[in-house]
Q: What sequence folds into this?
């Protein structure tokens, strides 16, 4: 699940990136409002963590412009401004939640999970294909009653495909969804992770969920039975 952090304090931004990456999120970071707005327009994010006091464009302006463009990505504002009028202004510009600094990381992560469960119009908590299921908020996966342990990147690859059922998803789209915007490695890494996911979700259950469409990408179709 890909998250955008727009925060001009580099220490806080780096801390958020480390913490969220450690629990399986793919995290992009912007240190000013203009760059943050550009990234939010260019990529599909599960959520945006948005500071208010930013150079270029402040958080209120970034959020209001996204909403004016009908971008419904869930937004949580993070700010040192904790007055009730500041909170009201943030919510009035379209933010979904508001957390004042200093904050507990445990609380932030819990609020983020809650935000994703509520979701914007694009976000469904549970994705399914036959008896295969993936819970985006709890970051769990399984077939029927059997749990399947996935690494964060494996989870992200499967999530990307399940959010676009019966659609051929190009390799570059998977890279864009699962790896950070500054990734410069070999695109074949996607095939490596597709193979790893197949070994976990299909091989033990006699299934063939992920189809390779040669020269085009990958597709999850039907009930995934082999």
A:
């Amino acid at each position: 699940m890909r998250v955008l952090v727009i925060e001009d304090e580099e220490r806080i931004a780096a801390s958020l990136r480390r913490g969220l990456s450690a629990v399986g999120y793919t995290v992009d970071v912007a240190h000013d409002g203009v760059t943050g707005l550009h990234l939010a327009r260019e990529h599909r994010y599960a959520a945006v963590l948005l500071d208010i006091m930013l150079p270029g464009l402040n958080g209120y302006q970034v959020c209001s412009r996204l909403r004016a463009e009908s971008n419904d990505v869930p937004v949580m504002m993070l700010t040192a401004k904790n007055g009730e009028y500041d909170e009201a202004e943030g919510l009035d510009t379209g933010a979904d939640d508001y957390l004042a600094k200093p904050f507990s990381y445990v609380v932030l992560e819990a609020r983020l999970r809650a935000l994703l469960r509520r979701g914007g119009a694009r976000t469904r908590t549970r994705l399914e294909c036959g008896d295969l299921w993936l819970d985006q908020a709890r970051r769990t996966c399984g077939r029927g009653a059997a749990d399947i342990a996935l690494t964060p990147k494996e989870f992200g690859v499967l999530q990307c495909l399940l959010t676009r059922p019966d659609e051929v998803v190009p390799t570059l789209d998977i890279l864009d969804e699962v790896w950070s915007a500054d990734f410069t490695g070999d695109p074949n890494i996607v095939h490596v992770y597709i193979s790893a996911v197949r070994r976990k979700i299909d091989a033990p259950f006699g299934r063939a969920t992920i189809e390779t469409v040669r020269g085009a990408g990958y597709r999850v179709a039907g009930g995934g039975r082999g």
User: Anything to note?
Assistant: The CA atoms of residues 36 and 49 lie 10 Å apart.
